[in-house]
Amino acid sequence: MDVSESFPEIRDAVRKLCAQFPGEYWRALDRDRIYPTEFVQALTQAGFLSVLIPEAYGGSGLGLAAATAVLEEIHRSGCNGGACHAQMYTMGTILRHGSEAQK
Question: Does domain 8-97 match CATH 3.90.226.10?
Answer without folding.
Answer: no
